[in-house]
Specification:
This protein has about 80 residues and is an all-alpha fold. The chain has one helix and no strands.
Length: about 80
């Protein structure tokens, strides 16, 4: 009777270890996967920030070019208008 009780207790402890031990491993695996995804997302965010900075630079150069073109056009129009007077 005592042996049966100890056997049952041992089986219960082993079953409990398996029931609680497996989810812990799953959580550890999920944590590792999450850390990996976080690292990938962080790297991607850095890449996107660099691309945004590059695009902003291109936009600034384009705006400066348009401003120069506008100034040249205004000077040309003034010269043409002075020639008509």
């Amino acid at each position: 009777m005592i042996a049966a009780g100890l056997g049952t207790l041992l089986v219960g402890v082993l079953a409990g270890y398996l029931m609680w031990g497996l989810p812990t491993r799953d959580v550890a695996r999920q944590l590792d996967e999450t850390r990996t995804r976080l690292g990938e997302q962080s790297r991607r965010a850095d890449e996107l920030q660099a691309k945004v900075a590059e695009t902003e630079s291109e936009l600034k150069r384009a705006a400066e070019g348009l401003l120069r073109e506008r100034e040249l056009r205004e000077k040309f129009e003034d010269l043409v208008n002075q020639g008509r007077k």
